[in-house]
Amino acid sequence: MSKNTKAVTTRPEELIEQKIFIIRGQKVMLDKDLAELYGVLTKNLNKAVKRNLLRFPNDFMFQLTKEESESLRFQIGTSKIGRGGQGYLSYVFTEHGVAMLSSVLNSDRAVQMNIFIIRAFIKMRQSLDNYHDLAIKIGEIELNQLTDHGVLCEVYKVVKQLLEQPIEPKEKIGFRPK
């Protein structure tokens, strides 16, 4: 390894997190990414799912629309259909669908990968919860700032009025000869 080359170490959870997308408001993984992680062909993964379709309701798995597929293809830079790309619309699996895949794919690798994937989903959920808590705190700070701003404006008006009032000369105190 040369001096200019840095070793990049990435944990499995981090690799998996990069393959989780938000589609239709749900965190999902593509069938091709799951197949790669499980060490099977995408078509074999999809065949196993279709043989056990009752285990995969719409909130566990759904097929992308053409628009969603195009949008995702643009985001992750995959090739177009006809240029080495897949000839069908991808299936995506939610966290529950991924958990169900372990019962359909009975291999040691599938079980191990499933554990990593579920941990990645949990980590992402915890991160989003932390951001939600942070957003609430920022909102509270903004609200306090608005309240404080209103009070400061009132104080400014009063001080301005006091400064603008003419100062009347006061009678001197003390003994004065006639």
Structure explained in plain terms:
This protein is α+β, with helices and mostly antiparallel strands. The protein has a domain at 12-133: Mlu1-box Binding Protein, DNA-binding Domain (Roll), CATH 3.10.260. It has helices at 12-17, 31-38, 42-51, 66-76, 95-104, 108-164; strands at residues 20-23, 26-30, 61-63, 91-94. A 4-stranded antiparallel sheet has the order 1-2-4-3. Strand 1 (20-23) and strand 2 form a beta hairpin. Helix 2 (31-38) crosses helix 3 (42-51) and helix 5 packs antiparallel against helix 6. The longest helix is centred in the last third of the chain and has 57 residues, at 108-164. It is rod-shaped. The model is unreliable at 1-8 (pLDDT under 50).
What is the helix tally? 6
Low-pLDDT parts are 1-8
Strand residues, percent: 5-15%
Class per helix and strand makeup: alpha+beta
H-E order = HEEHHEHEHH
- Average pLDDT, to the nearest integer? 78
> What separation lies between the terminal Cα atoms?
105 Å
Shape: rod-shaped
Task: Give the key terms.
single chain; 178 residues; alpha+beta; Mlu1-box Binding Protein, DNA-binding Domain; four-stranded antiparallel β-sheet; 6 helices; disordered N terminus
